[in-house]
Structures are given as structure tokens and as C-alpha cells.
Amino acid sequence: FNGFTFSTDKTSCIHFCRKRRLHPEPEILLEGQLLNVVNEIKFLGVTFDKKLTFKPHVMKLRKKLDKTLNILKVISNTSWGASRTSLLRVYRASILSKIDYGCVIYGSARQSVLKRLDPIHHSALRLCSGAFRTSPVESLYVECCEPSLDHRRRILTLHYYFQILSLPGHPFFNYKESQFIFRLQRARPSVIPSFFTTVSELLRNLNLEDLQVVPNLKLHLTPWKSHGLKFLNPFKTFDKANTAPEVYQQLFADHRDIYHNFIPIFTDGSKGSLSTSFACVFINSTLSFQLHSSCSIFTAEIAAILHALNQISRSTPDNYIIYSDSLSALESMT
Fold this sequence. Notes:
Radius of gyration: 28 Å
Order of helices and strands: EEEEEEHHHHHHHHHHEEEHEH
Helix content: 40-55%
Shape: extended
Strand content: 5-15%
Number of domains: 3
Largest sheet: 4 strands, mixed
InterPro entries: RNaseH-like_sf, RNaseH_sf
Number of strands: 10
Strand order of the largest sheet: 9-8-7-10
GO molecular function, one term: nucleic acid binding
Number of helices: 12
Structural class: alpha/beta
């Protein structure tokens, strides 16, 4: 192991088990020495207990955050203290970051355990906003633009789930929860749901069950070097407010005369109050697609260009030219 050795004195094991009756602990030997069986162990900053209640982790985190909260108490003086913006930045960097770390794992704990972190969150928001002790916590969330810890854990859980779906090489990329687990949790609601069961419930409540996640493709481009992608903009020297539409039409006609041997493809994206969509117009066909309503107009424009490139890659080799009215989308690719 290139100089790496195991220390039997520093090595311990933990038996994850929910049995309540007496049962023998596992006997694991390392270099002939019996390893010590512990009730809890810390791994990558998260404390795991043998019943996976995560109560020891939350209690240790609460004790650590109590000390960190003193920083906000010192710099939130009303006469010489920091501004609200600065206090919120300190809170997010020194306290909220510690709460977020590992919350996808310890978020499966009981609500009675997780609620022990809420007083820290509420006290910090009161210090940052200067609100009274009697102010409702819902008002604090709105005033400081910070969600509750429970809502924040749900957001981070979905972020991690979508990250899994965007990485084809992830071990859980094609994971499907077994029906046995679903039936068990329906029959025994007291059983703590697994990660994928929790995500499935969140997606169902948000009506996102049919959401398709585009895999994160491996790009072999070197960002520190110019990759040579360029686009044509014959209208950049003309002011849109002071240029007649006929001038643009004539410029486009001249442009098409120069590139008459290129097959034109037109792309466009649009966003309304209820939906986002894009379209690609080819010589003999027009294709339109609808995206999720949460997608931006920039996403629609980029998706339209990407779809046009995919169609070109499947077509007969020839000269093609793509027309887009989104300058931001074109500039982002250069």
C-alpha cells in the first residue's frame, strides 16, 4: 500500500442493527487482534450510530453551532455592528454550511431529532434581521429570504438526486427502488423511508415524476485554450432602434446570397407564463418541443441549437448554417 499501514489501536468497527434483544457483536480480527466494536463512528464528518438514528451527529452539530452562533451575537451590535447583508453572509458561511453538509444522509432522522437544529436557524435569522424574539418564524423566512431547514433539506436532496441522474457513471444512475421496499413502507409508515423513496414522494408532490434529466456529457474541450468556435453577426454594426426592418431584410438577403450553398436551419425559443418551448425549422420540416415551465428562455435557445446540431449529425454530410436570434446563446459557445 505504498507505506500505508493499518493501526489496530485506531481501527474500530460498528454493527448497524435494529435488533432490540441481546445479540452477539461481530468478531473481526486485524493482524490477529480483535477490533473494538463501538456504538458510533465518525466518517467524513458525519457521525453514524449503530441504529442510524443520527441523533449523536445532530447533538454534536448543535453543540458546535452554539459556539459559532456567538460570532453573530458579537458582530450584530445595533450601534457598531455589521449590516444585515454582511450578517447573512457570515451566517451562511459559518453556520448554514455546516448544517447543509451531509444533510442528504442525516436528513433521514426523525423529525423530533432534526427539529433540534431549528432554534439555531431561527436565532441566527433574528440576529441578522434584528427581529424581536416573538416574531413568527415564517416572517423571518420571508424577511431574510431563507427557507426553513426542512424545506432546505428537501431542495438539497433533489439537487443530489438530479446530480446522480446527470452522471451516467454514478453507481446509482440506473438504480430502481424495489417494490418490496415500497410495500414495506406503506404497511409500516413508522419505518424511516430510504433516500429514493423520499425523492419519489417529493417528485410526486411537485408533479415532476416525468422530468427527464439530460446526462452531463464529458467534454474534451480545453477551457484554457481557444477552441475556435465563431459565429457570424452581420447586424452588429447597426443600431436596432434606429434601423428600419427593410435594412435588415436586405442584409439577410445579401448574406444568403453569399452562403447560398449552405443549407439553412432556423432555431428559436419562447417562454410564456405556463410553458417554455423551442422549435427548429428545416427546409422540408418544422420540429417543435415543449420544455418544463421552470426552464429559462436561454435554456430554450440553447436546446434548439443543440437539437439542430443533433439533426445535422444524423443527416447527409453537407454544408449547414444555423440561424438564431439569441446573441447570448451564441456568445456563450465562443
